[in-house]
Amino acid sequence: MDWKIFITIFVAVFIAELGDKTQLATMLFATDKEVSKYTVFFAASAALIVASAIGVLAGSLLAEYINVKYLLYIMRNTLNKSFNLTLIIKGVRPL
């Protein structure tokens, strides 16, 4: 395993997940006093593992049919536009 790549992916996904709908939903479930916090943790973790597996599978399949350069171009433009839109909505001047 290449630890540099592992850490890069971990940090990117970790930052992307902070404060998103997944984390908010998990916090909401954790507020229920009748639900075990372990159940919330393990269920949310399992859901993220399955979602990640689907992402890896989809990326692998797309890479077989579409040049990785084009996929990266599409991804960068999509992320940049959504990031700028988020900044505009929050009233921050886009980069």
What does this structure look like?
The protein is mostly helical and about 100 residues long. It has a domain of about 60 residues. Helices cover about 80% and strands about 0% of the residues. It is built from 4 helices and no strands. The longest helix has 29 residues. It starts with a helix and ends in a 5-residue tail after the last helix. The model has no long low-confidence stretch (mean pLDDT about 85).
Report the oligomer.
single chain
Task: Outline the low-pLDDT stretches.
Answer: none
Helix-strand topology string? HHHH
- Let me know the average pLDDT: 85
Radius of gyration: 17 Å
Q: Strand portion, in percent?
A: under 5%
| Biggest beta-sheet profile | none
Q: Structural class per helix/strand content? A: mainly alpha
Shape by Cα distribution: extended
Share of residues in helices: over 70%
Strand segment count: 0
- The N- and C-terminal alpha carbons lie at a distance of 35 Å
Helices, by number, come to 4
